Amino acid sequence: MKYRDIAISVSDLNKYIKDKIDNDEYLNNILIKGEISNFKNHYTGHMYFTLKDENSLIKCIMFKSYATKLTFMPKDGMKVMILGSVSVFERDGVYQVYAKVMEEDGLGDLYTKYQELKNKLEEQGLFDEEHKMPIPVMPKVIGVLTSSTGSVIRDIINVSTRRNPNVYIRLFPVPVQGEGAAEKIAQGIEFMNRNKLADVLILARGGGSLEDLWPFNEEIVAHSIYNSEIPIISAVGHETDFTIADFVADLRAPTPSAAAELAVADTYELKRKIDTYQDRLRNSLIKKLELMKLRYEKCISSTALKDPLRKINDNYLKIDNYIKQLENIIKTKQEKEKTKYIELLAKLDTLSPLKTLYRGYSITEKNGKIIKSKDELKQGDTIDIRFVDGQRQAKVQ
Amino acid sequence: MKKSFEENIDDLEKIVSELESGDLNLDDSVSKFEEGIKISKECNKILEDAEKKITILLNEDGNIKEENFTTEEE
């Protein structure tokens, strides 16, 4: 007989184990106490988590139909009691707890510790917005505190070099979990500060349970972040994990890649921005010049400049008109004067003594004086008698 | 003192708005334009002057050394 013929397949083995467990009454209805960790609330509504104590753990699943009946949202670190059954997931060869009912069994120690420390530090002002520093736009050196192995540093380097091919990253390797990690992390932050080794620091680690993330909840780390003169971006755990380091940091990033995006400016984007500014400068100067050109051309084409002689000619016309007017006025005046003159002349003519003489009158003079009365003459006087055509002397009888 | 990249970009933004507002006379427009181009060239220089460097800081017997860092994949 060949061994191969009596060997069973994996599927058969898993089925056998499943049947054994499904037929166990105790395992069908069991009450378990433990601490939740690695809790995931899946989008389907099913909940996946691990239930553990100091020595071991077991995987659990709570289907949506049961999960919706919960009166609280389970969290890592919570101590709970679960009523459910144990069964086998044949495909993966794992056994797990199928939870039907869950109740809180007081808060997990670690979780309480976290809450207490968070409140204490918040009251001390370590989370204050006013104390947070802005992240520099163009840091010359990016300091990174994380493990030197693993995907975190790789992701940070990849994202950084993609955004800025000339980026300068200084990695200070630190343990990100376990005993003494908090002290090493704090020392790392202080070291980078003391020697001014970076313009911005990224503090990062991947996802994990509350215990895994615990160093980032320690007071010593919180204080070194708070006292850091270099701005710190914290990216600890997954998007939904919040550690005390995240609250104290100057900026929190949901993932290490996101932290790199926040720390490293995209130089291609900046180059484009600068080019756009140059275009805008050129365009507005061209516009200004064209505007000036238009104004200039408008002035040049105005009639005043096109036909400068026109004004002069117009004025000449005006002058001619005035002259004509003057001439008319003078003529009219002359006529008037002439008429007047002729009248006066006629008058003068009639008043002329010569005219009177012509009519037969004569002027009698004695010693040059005109005699107007007979009494002015006595017998024997010599008088001059002036006729129209001359004079004769006579003696008065 | 040489200006930081941020300060240069801020100045550049200001000059572009001033020029676009159209309130400047021709002489000022030309000089602002020249200043703007000068600053933008300075910004480009800052971006191009940098050199890629990925390093790891190692503590060897109290002395800190800086070495080139390569990830596991490289």
Description:
The complex is a heterodimer of chains A (397) and B (74). With 397 residues, chain A is α/β, with parallel strands linked by helices. Chain A has four domains: 8-107, OB fold (Dihydrolipoamide Acetyltransferase, E2P) (Beta Barrel); 112-265, Rossmann fold (3-Layer(aba) Sandwich), CATH 3.40.50; 307-350; 354-395, no CATH class. Helix content of chain A is 46%, strand content 22%. Chain A has helices spanning 3-6, 10-22, 25-28, 64-67, 109-124, 151-163, 181-194, 210-213, 219-227, 244-248, 256-263, 267-300, 303-306, 308-351, 353-358, and strands at 30-41, 47-52, 57-62, 79-89, 94-104, 142-146, 168-173, 200-205, 232-236, 251-252, 363-366, 369-370, 382-387, 390-395. A five-stranded mixed β-barrel of chain A has the order 1-2-3-5-4. Chain A has a five-stranded parallel sheet with strand order 7-6-8-9-10, with helices on both faces. In chain A, helix 6 (151-163) runs parallel beside helix 11 (256-263) and helix 7 (181-194) runs parallel beside helix 9. The radius of gyration of chain A is 63 Å and the shape is rod-shaped. The relative contact order of chain A is 0.07. The mean pLDDT of chain A is 91. By secondary structure, chain B is α+β, with helices and mostly antiparallel strands. Chain B has one domain (5-68). Chain B contains two helices and two strands. In chain B, strands 1-2 form a two-stranded antiparallel sheet. Chain B starts with a helix and ends in a 6-residue tail after the last strand. The model of chain B has no long low-confidence stretch (mean pLDDT 85). Classes of the chains: A alpha/beta (397), B alpha+beta (74). The interface between A and B is large, with 40 and 38 residues. Strand 7 (168-173) of chain A pairs parallel with strand 1 of chain B.
Q: Between the first and last Cα atoms of chain A, what is the distance in angstroms?
A: 221 Å
What is the level 1 CATH name of the largest domain in chain A?
Alpha Beta
CATH H level, superfamily name of the largest domain in chain A: Hypothetical protein af1403, domain 2
Query: How would you classify the helix and strand content of chain A by structural class?
Result: alpha/beta
Strand ordering within the main sheet of chain B: 1-2
Supply the number of helical segments of chain B: 2
Gyration radius over CA of chain B: 21 Å
Q: In total, how many domains does the architecture of chain B comprise?
A: 1
Share in β-strands of chain B: 15-25%
Pair with the biggest interface = A-B, 40 and 38 residues
CATH topology of the largest domain in chain A: Rossmann fold
Count of DSSP-assigned helices of chain A: 15
Mean pLDDT across all amino acids of chain A: 91
Strand adjacency order, main sheet of chain A: 1-2-3-5-4
**Low-pLDDT windows of residues of chain B:** none
Principal-axis shape of chain A: rod-shaped
Instruction: Say what oligomer this is.
Output: heterodimer
Classify the secondary structure makeup of chain B into a structural class.
alpha+beta
- State which percent range the strand residues of chain A make up: 15-25%
